[in-house]
Amino acid sequence: MNSLLEAEHVTIRFGRLTAVADASLTLAAGETLGLVGESGSGKSSLAKALIGLVPVTAGRISIEGHDLATLDRAGRLRLRRRAQIVLQDAAASLSPRFTVARLIAEPLRIHRLADSGMPPLIERLGLADLLDRYPHELSGGQAKRVALARALVLTPELLVADEPTAGLDISVQGEMLNLLIGLRPRPGLLLVSHDLSVIRRVSDRLAVLYLGRIVETGPTRTIFNRPAHPYAAGLIASAPVIDPERRQPRRTLSGELPSPFAPPPGCAFHPRCPQAQAICRRVVPVAQAVGEGREVACHFPLTEG
Amino acid sequence: MSWLELDQVSLDYAGRSGTVRALDRVSLSLARGRILGLVGESGSGKSSLVLALMGLLPDGAHVTGRMTLDGADLIVEAPRLRGRSLAMVFQDPMTALNPVFTLESQLIDAQRARFPGLPRAELRARAAAMLRRTGIAEPDRRLASYPHELSGGLRQRVLIAMALLALPELLIADEPVTALDVTIAAQIMALFEELRDGFDGSMIFVSHSLALVLRLCDEVAVLYAGTLVETAPVAALFAAPRHPYTQALIACEADGGAGALPTIPGAVPRLAGPADSCVFAPRCPLCAERCRVEAPVLRDLVGGRRAACHFA
Which end is more exposed in chain A, N or C (fewer Cβ atoms within 10 Å of the end residue's Cβ)? Predict the structure, then answer.
């Protein structure tokens, strides 16, 4: 096994809410995996669980072969060095009482590491002029870069970025994504986003979530070109793209997102699915390989064309 | 004079550390029945502009210039026209409805200004019919609901229905799908496209997404740091943007290639007053000496388009 990260049949419950059900995925060293879904899909819960920030109810998560559930205190500290996260609300994740310089140095202090890597990192992320500032003096894009610097200063093997571009203007989004694409050495990157154009651009592989379940995984390009799950197809068709000929098909998914507190029985997507049949209302589909490194959890996956 | 006309509209907010110029001499016109896409990033002044049109600016805001709708001076008359010729759909459907009243009572109240004489039963029937038109099933049952019983997508449909019930001549939609999930946003965009054909007023569709503007609008106006930098018919703008900022914005959003993503270096400037240089100069790849000493005026180009750039 040479996976950096491995999740097997992970279920996450908060009280009577099942945020994630039976999710399995892997991430190889240096690979970028995109986790995409709408509200209530469980993508943030899963992302946090994958680096041990949220306890799993069932299933197993391991990083570099170490089962997160069996780590002792020292093991957890070592894990924190190797697996880092940039939270969605980056500005709120920064202590308001620390300057940028102190914020970036703090992880090194905790892990008792030398700060020789700090100056080049500060240079690369364009933070040199901001070192004396406090978080409230930063723009949204700057706060995201500081949060990224705090994660990268430990040179993690695994980096989770939860909605790294959400809330940023389009002209600044590219800057953030270029930083993530350009990381050397490349960490294993788990990119959580609701924005398909971001995921498409940055990730090698893709996992599409719907109401707590992974409905399709596979190479990003393959899924975008020929989605096999009807939800993945609807999601991709719904994303706005600049299309001067106005040829974009007006195909949209009907219906609302059901409440994750009361997901529909059988396949959770069946009430919105254009090709749902009787079995879909009763039986939860299990993920099946459909070739080209893809897995689809659907009784009637879309075929060619 | 056009049906909707803005002539040299400036907007200043008084603050503790001096005034901030949110809009600088914006001139714009829109014919009846047309849909204008108003595009810009945060701080561009697009929300300030539509709030000024609606007469909803906070205290401390000072508007100069002229804004007229069908000859009526909006600076004076907007409060009287709201709920009649002027209606607006706001960005966040979760907070735009009053949580303590049913949809029925809110949708009836929204029609009082337009139809003061109509009996309640008739207003209720209009409300139910409009809910149906905006894609809400079982509208009679829905009217008894409170806002918290509705999803975000349904609430936005209710707010669109509420705005249309006033039979507005100018409908303003401020980022109406930004707060919604991707598949729900696509549904609401489809609803706007559907309603477009049966609506004989004009619409201003505010968005940071060029893709959405391209889909729905006839014309586009691009705002940058409170300045109108380019206006054009929608197809012409996308085929050949004339202002470097518009070009960069389209490149950022349209990107589908590999390698590094296009960005616009630098940040949106903070505005303190009328500029004596081009507002985009610090970030512009074409910036020359002239751009730093002389603000370009928005000038007419061929094809019914305008751009504020010395090199356009």
Answer: C
